[in-house]
Amino acid sequence: MEEIRFQKLTTIAQTEMRAINRSAVLEYLRLAKTASRTELSTQLKISKPTVMRIIDELVADGWVLNLDEKEKGARRSRDLLALDKKNNLVIGVDLGGSHISGIVANIGGEILFQDRVPEEWGLSEMNFNILVQFIRDLIEKAGEQEGRVLGIAVGVPGIVDSKIGMVKIAPSLNWAQLPLLEKLEKEFKMPITIENDVNLAALGENWFGVGVGVDNMVMISIGTGIGSGIILDGKLYRGFRDSSGEIGYFLPGVNYLDSKYPKFGALESQASCKGIAEKALQVLKQRRETFDPASIDSAMVFKEARSGTPWAQQIICETVDFLSLAIANVSVSFDPELIILGGGIIGSADQLIEPVQNRLKEVIPYIPRIEASTLRSMAPLLGCVVRVFQKCVDYTVAQVV
After folding, report:
1. Which of 63, 96, 128, 186 has its CA 20 to 30 A from that of 76?
2. Can you tell me the distance from the alpha carbon of 91 to that of 385, in angstroms, rounded to the nearest whole number?
């Protein structure tokens, strides 16, 4: 007999409803900054006794403060509430292709300490040990601040199984099927979250950057590789295997079908910072020009293109074409309101955004708004703040009406 696969049926148990209401209250306070119990009840359409019970729990758990302020304009004096941002801290780490960076921040996104160290990544275990020592240093710095450390989030440039914290593949770190969460939990006795770095960047922009208030958006990060983080209806979209957004493997033409891409994808070979630099090296070798290979990177190519150097302009035109193909496919697949460009290429985003928009005119039904990241390299680190906050409060995305 053929197996019947039922779609998941949505039912809400009492415990789930409590989590949804609790998350809605936290989300409202996050966005509104302050609110009274009556305002929360009215705006969220939750009974006042339920709101009062939730607030009592959140105050007892150290998430919410009773302010020494009253609601203005109310007929009766009402105490105002706010998230206790100052006393709830997060440690965030971003593992880049050529660096490791980290922050100690509070849940309001205020950065209290930050560090960034260049790294030449080596063997798998060595890279893990570097991460462990870096986190230890951040924990020491967090101890100098007021407040409790809620947890740690680590952004990995690769495919991550978010349920078990397994790094399926991260080529730049030589990690494959690495149980990173399990290994870190043996080192640190606090909540830990492992997440794809571009997913974190998308969350960071969505809560603290250019994507605030946007429920449908895609963050495209162009650096050593190319990846994207997708937020649909206010939720991070992961896909069936946690590999949605791996657009670096996008095939920009049928001629790319006959090759294999065990580490970096077809699009990355053409339009990433590394791909742009390698194209420049090939051109300069063909031209037999004298140059220092160490000085050739994507920033140099963009600078030369801006100055009018023909070979550099040609490379950037090709980059625009490949990026336009990727954005076109992302746009018709997800219909986002906003696409954010970020990563190592961010300093040259002005040389990409308008040309891409021009290439897509009348090509696809709707061209989304395309913006440069406002958080830049801090986007994934502030995304760490979001993920730790969500994990620690059992956060459920709820629509605030």
Report:
1. 63
2. 8
